[in-house]
Specification:
By secondary structure, the chain is α+β, with helices and mostly antiparallel strands. It has one domain. The protein is built from four helices and six strands. The strands form two sheets. Strands 1-6-5-4 form a four-stranded mixed sheet, with helices on both faces. Strands 2-3 form a two-stranded antiparallel sheet.
Amino acid sequence: MHIGGVSIFEGPAPPFERLEEMVGGKLDLVPRYRQKVRFVPLGLGRPVWVQDPHFNLSYHLRHSALPRPGTEEVLRKTAARIFAQHLDRRKPLWEIWMVEGLSERPVGAALQGSTTAWLTASRPPTLMTVDVRGRSGRRPGANVDARA
């Protein structure tokens, strides 16, 4: 299965280094993003997830720009080209592309692999760090006493 999505953000594009810092700071929350698929020899079992001893965050984060005039049609074609590429099964199965140059809005992000849901759930549009606990101090999804 292949999952991809495009998010468009308002305002000036943050420095690419800020995206690297944000993603790097969240990788420990989802260990799967440092893991790759290992296939069992001779097909004698199901594939398993293993730590990638050569994990390199820079490989998974890409920075690009749309050619002028940077219309939404150009963004759609760029996203289609990105999503048509196969992910390297020798590495963790995700990529994030920061795409700049959309004339109507300055920043777009093309996401592929299972990263889409993770990134959307753990990052506000401004790429700032936030406290993941609700006002009550509980983490989302924590058991809540219905009598409270």
